[in-house]
Design goal:
Low-confidence stretches: none
Structural class: alpha+beta
Number of helices: 3
Radius of gyration: 21 Å
Order of helices and strands: HEEEEEHH
Number of domains: 1
Mean pLDDT: 85
Number of strands: 5
């Protein structure tokens, strides 16, 4: 009986110690990871609007819940950060529209989908379908990646709705 109690206490102590170490590591790395995510978004915004010197986060309303953030490139347009559920996991992307309503940039920020199929959404092939399209022109889906590309297209449609309200299109 004593052995069972001592083993139980040892396991409880080891588990508590492991949990405390993990919580400590998380509290140290969490701000660093968040800073890296912000830096990645800023770099992507600069790719979409290369001549922009400043990006301001804009307040907006989105009934769909797909548009997370909107950034204004002063005098050039808006970039919208969108999150949708793909086939395998969540897909986050940025899409930029100039003030005339033309898509000037599309970049996937995070994706974890089927290699060779759903991951194609992050390829230039899909970006080329999006870039140059004008509001409200629909974007085609990718054959073989129908679920994920359809989700991204729905996200683009939600972005268009938000863009129209911001640009008073």
């Amino acid at each position: 009986m004593k052995k069972i109690i001592s083993l139980t206490l040892f396991l409880a102590l080891a588990s508590a110690l492991a949990g405390a170490v993990l919580a400590g590591v998380n509290s140290i790395t969490s701000p660093i990871i968040e800073e890296q995510k912000i830096a990645a978004v800023k770099a992507t915004l600069k790719e979409i609007f290369p001549s922009a010197t400043e990006f301001a986060e804009v307040k907006f309303e989105d009934a769909s819940g797909k548009v997370n953030n909107v950034y204004e490139a002063k005098g050039q347009g808006f970039a919208l950060k969108v999150t949708v559920q793909g086939y395998k996991d969540i897909i986050t992307f940025l899409i930029g529209y100039d003030l005339n309503g033309e898509a000037v940039g599309f970049k996937v920020v995070s994706i974890n989908d089927t290699p060779g199929i759903g991951m194609r959404i992050g390829d230039q092939e899909f970006a080329d379908l999006v870039i140059g399209s004008s509001v409200p022109t629909p974007v085609d889906t990718l054959a073989g990646a129908t679920v994920s590309s359809s989700a991204v297209v729905k996200g683009i449609e939600a972005a268009i709705v938000v863009f129209k309200t911001l640009a008073e299109y």
